[in-house]
Each structure stands twice: as structure tokens, then as C-alpha cells.
Structures
1.
Amino acid sequence: MNESSGPIKVCETNTHTRFDERIRRKLNCETQPENRADNVKIRVLLSRRISVADREGECAVRIAREALDAHVLRRARRPVEIPKAFEEKSGAFVTLNDHPSGLLRGCIGYPQPFFALVKSIEKGAEGAAEDPRFPRLSPEELDRVTVEVSILTPPQLIEVKKPKDLTKHVTPGADGLSVAQGQYRGLLLPQVAAEYGWDPAEFLSEACMKAGLLADAWLDPSTRVYKFQAEVFAETKPRGPVVRRTLEAARAGH
């Protein structure tokens, strides 16, 4: 996947209005009934593809929070615990949500493993504070937003003989999607599909629209579709305890 090393915004406001209106709602919107069999399948898939301990996830959020605070307050970063594994290259996204509404306040990240994980997290946090879709985060807002970190696996191209078979290789809630066609690019994190209860075809269509393409562009053989997985950790309240986000929690709007 020949993408630049620049940051990626998860939810473009100028791409298509329908997606933007939904992503800005409270995340406790109406959801699909929970399917236990699907949830078991997703947990098995994630356990095979990526493994981040809860303690490491907590460290990831603390790193992002410190980078965010230092950047917004224009001060030096304070020392925080950095696991040795975070020195390895990995993609990551940092999401800021207004609390308690849950409305998106910023989301910037690096899908490709160009940087050490700790750097991807720090740069993502700084970028989220200056997400161009929103006013720059003010010092007064630091205690009114929660910090969420998604640690990503490298995107893998989904290769199929017929584009319509792409749906067989996408598992909403476990997979994130990245779509590319020419100069158009779009990415949706795994938790987005879970939050809205999309099936594989809907998820593919939304990823295409996120890239500025037609909803059925994934059926075009020239469209490249990549999938990746993520471990997601978030504050339960500003500067509060850090928890691992699960499919069930996403569907409940947590």
C-alpha cells in the first residue's frame, strides 16, 4: 500500500454529509441487537491478529494524554512510562471525544507503520488537537474531552477474483477498512462499523464514500480495499480510568 506518511483524518466533514451527520451524533444512538455468535467470532479474530495487554493499552492512552496536554498548553512533556514494545513501528490513531456527549472533537492518525508506536501516538494526539475540521482545542477543553487510542496492524490488501466477494473477507467490528482509487483515499476504524451496526456491504460502501467515491466503488476492479485490525483503549471520563473498548461496548455507545 503506497501511501504517504502523512496523518489521516478518520471522519472527513467535507466528503459526504450523510456520514458526517451521523458521526457527530451522540454515540449512544440506536444500535443493532447484539449477536453473541458474531461477538465470539470477532474476539477470536482479534486474538489471532493483534495482542496488546491492558497495561500497555493504559500506557498508550496516558502517552497520548500527556502529549495532548503538553501540546495544547505549550509546555514540555512530562516523563511517562513507555513500554519497550512501543519502540517498534506501528500505526495508531488518537480520537478526542467531547464528554459526556460523546461527540467527535478530533481524530488524526497514521495507518502505516512508518513510526515507532510511541511516536505515532504522540503525533496523533498533537494532530487531533488541531484537526482542521474543528477549532483548535483550547486549554479549557482539556478537561472536557476523553482520549482514545487505536493501535493498528499493518493494512493488508484484500485480493479477490471478483469484487463482489469482498464482503466475504470483511468482518465488521474486527476489521477496519482503507480504500484507495487513484488520488482518492478513505479509512474507517473498526469501531465505527460496530457503532452503526453496518454489515460488510454497508461498511465497504461507507469506506468508499469516506474516500470521496461513489458508494458502490468497491465493486470497481480498480478500487483497492485494505483491511486492518485495532486494539482500542479509552478514558471513561476526562483523565479517568482507561478501559479496553469492545464490540459490545461500541454498540452500547460507550
2.
Amino acid sequence: MSAAQAMATEARAPAREEEEEAAPAPPVTRMAIAVLALVGLFVAGYLSLYKMGIIGEITCQVGSCDRVQASPWAVFLGVPVPYLGLAGYVGILAVSLLGIQPRFVGARWVALALFGMAAVGVAFSAYLTWLEAFRIHAWCQWCVVSAILMTLIFLLSIPELRRAR
């Protein structure tokens, strides 16, 4: 290798390092969504363990979780509602974690998937909250916590729509 080629190679090396350093930072909203989805996963997991009979009694400091979980609306299309929550939170967590990886930071599908899943989740949570208030006449604190988490996830997913353009 000639001296000129060696100098050209050295000149390109810092440029590559700068390109690697200039990789886009993971979106803070996606990191926050991942944390909230993880908390939701624990809530839905706890309710699922109760529904499976693994946990004998559900701990509910406020409201009547047993009454809500025993109601006819605790099953949707033949699937216990906590299992649907578990699946939803797993999906949101997986997509949000993928979305903070450098190669997916700018991916349009990540933004649309997060917004879409959050929109479905918040709509379903609103429906379940309506059922608690007007049909069951009882509140489950864990269901309310899940509804709040899903609402926060939905609100954090709105800025993602800018990335989808």
C-alpha cells in the first residue's frame, strides 16, 4: 500500500466512526411505552394467574375485583379478558423494544403498529370501564390500573404518527 492510499484510508476511518456515532437515538416515547407495557404485562399476568386458578384470591384494596372477574363480561369471544390484556401488552412491548433498535428507529411500520395496538387497547379498555360502571356496578382496581396504563401508552403513541410520514 502506498503512502497516499494509507492516508486516504486513515482519512475515511474517522468518517465511518462519525457515521456510527450519528446513529439516531432511540425515541424516548418508545422507551416509555416499553416500560408502561411491562407494567401492564405484570398486571395482566397477575389477573391471568387468578383466572387460571393459580392464585387463590385476588388482592384488591379498592373495589370488588372478584365480582368483576366473575361477571359474564370477564370473557370476550370465548377468551378471558386478562389473556387478551396479556397478549396486547406482550405485542406492544415487543414492538416498542424493536422500535428502539437503531435499524428500526425510522421504520414506519413500528410507529403505525404502536399507534394501532394502543388505539385498539384504549378503545377496549374504555368499553370494559363502561361495563364496570354501568353493567357490573363494581370496580376492579387492577382493571382501572390497566386502563390508565393503556391510555398513557395511547397518548405516547400519538407522536409516533410523525415518524410514520
3.
Amino acid sequence: MGIFGSFSASVNANVDVSASVDVGASVDIGASGGVTVPALGLGGRRDPYLSYNFAVEIEGLVVGGFSEVSGLQTEIEVQDYREGGVNQYVHRRAGPTKYPSLVLKKGVTDVRTMWNWYYSVAQGIIQRKNLSVLLLDSTGQEKLRWNFEQAYPVKWVGPDLKGTSSEVAVESVELAHCGFAAG
């Protein structure tokens, strides 16, 4: 025994840890007709759409068989303006919007629709058409749409033919247009 006496202690600890997570989703439709979708809760996920799952629609008809679509881009041209007496910087103003051509590629078949359209334009018969590129989800449902206005073919490229290759013969058509909007 010391000056303060003896001391002993024992500790018993039982720890019970449990957690519960309730992930729910609801959609609220307000009086103004707007739809509000809440953010995904813990564990929810939204996978990006796959680029191979798309369709092309020309004048309201879905035309299939395209293996590649490129040219889904737009750019605002920036114009520099030097103001007299201001030497610290150059003003940068938004200029016109540029749209590159849309390029559609597909395997060559007996259906000559794209060639015939190009050939008529080459003969001076310009037939402008509205078309859409649709991005689909894994079930084939439309998720995104880009609507191109007043498109017409300006270039056609035939397949590269090689006796030593077993690749699919692919043709491409390049379409000029007056812009597009996501729909």
C-alpha cells in the first residue's frame, strides 16, 4: 500500500455499431409544370451513355447502318480588339459561331440513298434536309438529340478497296449545315 492506498480497475466494453441508409428517389412536379429531380443519394450512380449506341434520323425517318458520326462540335470565334490608350490587355469579344461539317460513315450496301443525294447536289439540285443524331441508352431509348438544320452533302468518299484486306467497305458523306441545337 502506498500513501494513497491500492487501486484496481477493470473495463468491460461492448460496442454495437450499426448503420442504416435509406436511398429513395422522388420527382416533384410544381404548379408551373417544372420537374425537379433530386440529386442521387448515397450509392446511386449514373453511368455515361455509350458512344456506339446511336441513330441518325433524316427528315423524321430513322436511317440505320451508320458506323460512325463525327463533327458534333461548335466553336465561338473570338475577336481581339485593341483599345487606344489601353496597353495592359486586349479586349476579347465573342464573334460568330462556327460549325464544322457533319461526317456520316456506313458500310456500302445496295441502298444508294446517300450517294444519290450527293450526286443531285453535284448536278446543281441542292436539296437541304433537316436531320438529327440520337444518342440511345442501353435499352434503345432516346436520351439525347442533336438537330441539324438545312444540311446537304458537300463531299462523298468511297471505300478503300484492298485485295489483302477483309474489312467492311465503308463510304462516308460530309454534310454542310446551318448549325445545330441539342433537343
